[in-house]
Amino acid sequence: MGTLFKNGTVVTASDMVQADVLVEGEKVVLIGQNLPTQGHEVINCEGKYLMPGGIDVHTHLDLPFGGTFSNDDFDVGHKAAAFGGTTMHIDFVNQPRGGSLHDGLVTWREKAKPSQIDYGFHMIISDLRDDVMDEIPSLLDEGITTVKLFMAYKGVFQIDDNTLYKAMQVAAKHGMIVMVHAENGDVEAQLRSQLLAEGKTDPIYHYSSRPPEIEGEATNRAVVLAGLTGCHLYVVHVTCIPAIDALRRGRQLGYPVMGETCVQYFHVTRDHHLGAPGFEGAKYVCSPPVRNEEHHQALWQAFKDDTLQAISTDHCDFWYEGGVGPWQQWEKDHKGGQWAEYEKQDPTYRRPGKELGKGNFAKIPNGMPGIEDRMMVMWELGVNSGKFSPSRFVELMSTNPAKIFGCYPQKGTIAPATDADIVVWDPNAKHTISASTHHMRCDYNVYEGMQVTGVPQQVYLRGKRIVDGNIWLGKNGEGKYVRRIPNAPVL
User: Fold this and answer.
1) How far apart are CA 34 and CA 36, in angstroms?
2) Which residue, 21, 13, 18, is CA-closest to 46?
3) How many Cβ atoms from other residues are within 10 Å of residue 32's Cβ?
4) Residue 42, Cβ neighbours under 10 Å: how many?
5) Cβ neighbours of 279 (radius 10 Å)
6) Cα atoms in the 13 Å half-sphere on the side-chain side of 46
7) Under a CB-based contact definition with an 8 Å cutoff, are residues 128 and 159 in contact?
8) Residue whose C-alpha is closest to residue 285's, from 368, 214, 355, 211
9) What secondary structure letter does DSSP report for 283?
10) What is the rounded distance in angstroms from the CA atom of residue 407 to the CA atom of residue 393?
11) What is the pLDDT of residue 321?
């Protein structure tokens, strides 16, 4: 017995066609019209779209940052993702300072044990010693094809150009992708120190310490080095005109460079959100910072001319009003970032959050919630506004991420022999986004009050229904680690 999705419109990156989809076990086995129903569970999809599950390739679950940890983990974060139509994500593993890359993998495999959707790993390299450089190719044995390096966060993550160049040479030799956080960390450190010395401590000054020019300059450096080494480059969370221009020039020159932006950079603004009265702007502190409308418009154009290839979230949420409960005791008893037991024992418990930066914008934990909202917000902003077709939406939210990161066609499309990650999408259903109804472990929502038309009605992970309306059917441990292959294309 299989599951037969009947009378829906199948949406892929290339086509929209009314068809039935038959799933047996974990795979799609047949797509056609008027498929026989006998012996199958029939799902009536009339008036609905059948789309591949979303793939969010930029998340930070249970991430240590700035004296705390991000709230969502591989339990709650996965549930929230699925309610939003995302069936796979790729999380960033942190190399521990002084440790090996595989030391970081051990920690993240433990974090991932409660997984409820499928996932992969990128590797953040924070201490690129010679022995660690030699370790990079061994990541392929673990199904990891991507390493991330920071051109920012001086004294913590930032690497110099010599190190970036050498890492690109190694990655290029083995068909791997180098991802960069592109901001000039030396200039940012100077600006930050000057602002704080002048008593400019409010959240809005986070923007002043990280202007578009330093993002553009760092992006251009990374693009040039990718051209010199032949290394495939993926610039994460592109926000602004100077960075877009740098990527566009590189692509026109034939360099193997790509980029993403994140949902918040189409909607959240410096003036209205980051510059909100009092400490309210802390909710919207992330790096690079949110920009204003002229940069939003440049991002839409960057997708129109294929300068950018994917839309992610950089999901990394923290309480706005945290610090409730015995977190000092938690720090004393801390055994590797597992907060869940304290949270179960004390419903009022909240790990430290954005309030850590009151009086000093540089200490505000960077990040926002978004893993649940990505698909609905981009459907509203992109498809309903006429900027994207449904097929282009699927391409940016699922197919391109799968192709770039080495898991296509297993993931990212609906076709025979692919994983049956299927979202039954109702293009006419309405929903109001709110912290009062979302499933993320966060006390605010970046898109609070936004009314969207188009929502996931049912979500299937490898043929198993895990979301049915407002009902959760997933289980811990059912998510699988996705091994990815190198030498992916430059799109």
Assistant:
1) 6
2) 18
3) 9
4) 15
5) 18
6) 3
7) yes
8) 368
9) G
10) 18
11) 84
**Per the structure block, which two tokens stand in for 110?**
């433990």
Give the homologous superfamily in CATH for domain 54-375: Metal-dependent hydrolases (3.20.20.140)
* Strand partners for 44: 6
Residue-wise pLDDT for 47-95, tens only, equals: 999 999 999 999 999 998 888 889 999 999 999 999 999 999 999 999 9
Residues 243 and 368: their CA atoms lie apart, in Å, by: 21
Q: Which helix (H) or strand (E) holds 464?
A: strand 464-468
* pLDDT, tens digit (0-9, with 9 covering 90-100), for 105-159: 999 999 999 999 999 999 999 899 999 999 999 999 999 999 999 999 998 999 9
The answer to whether the CB of 302 falls within 8 A of the CB of 248 is yes
Which residue type does 147 have? V
Which tens digits make up the pLDDT trace of 207-230? 999 999 999 999 999 999 999 999
How far is residue 248's CA from residue 238's CA, in Å, rounded to a whole number?
12
Say how far apart CA 353 and CA 22 lie, in whole Å: 46
Distance of CA 162 to the CA centre of its chain: 28
Beta bridge partners of 30: 22
Can you give the pTM of this predicted structure?
0.96
Mean pLDDT for the stretch of residues 326-330: 47
The domains of the chain are located at 54-375
